[in-house]
């Protein structure tokens, strides 16, 4: 329910495996907008005082031109591990080395 309340109806989300989820947000290229949405989600997840949920997010921007599912997942994974290094409830964007 928290994902449905935070993201739009045409965004796609689901469980990727274990404790990992994946979200495809269409037609958004603004870090500011994504930051707003992610921090809204963090606030919703933390509002349950009996069982607050923490998470780390890795974000990558993709386009239809030259799209590679495998490459996009790798980039998001690299960014996620950067977030995990920073601590709970953080987000990181993939940056080309």
Structure description:
With 97 residues, the protein is α+β, with helices and mostly antiparallel strands. The protein is 40% helix and 20% strand. The chain has a two-stranded antiparallel ribbon. Strands 3-4 form a two-stranded parallel ribbon. The chain is globular and about 45 Å long.
Low-confidence stretches: none
Q: What's the oligomerization state?
A: single chain
Work out the strand percent.
15-25%
Q: What is the succession of H and E elements?
A: HEEHEHE
Largest sheet: 2 strands, antiparallel
How many β-strands, per DSSP?
A: 4
- Mean pLDDT rating: 88
Number of helices: 3
Question: In terms of structural class, how would the helical and strand content be classed?
Answer: alpha+beta
Spatial ordering of strands, largest sheet: 1-2
Termini separation: 36 Å
Estimate percent helicity: 40-55%
Overall 3D shape: globular
Radius of gyration: 13 Å
Task: Please outline what is shown here.
The chain has 97 residues and is α+β, with helices and mostly antiparallel strands. The protein is 40% helix and 20% strand. The protein is built from 3 helices and 4 strands.
Supply the key terms.
97 residues, alpha+beta, two-stranded parallel ribbon
Write the layout of secondary structure elements.
Layout: H1 2-6, E1 12-17, E2 20-24, H2 31-46, E3 56-59, H3 69-86, E4 90-93
Parallel strand pairs: 3-4
Antiparallel strand pairs: 1-2
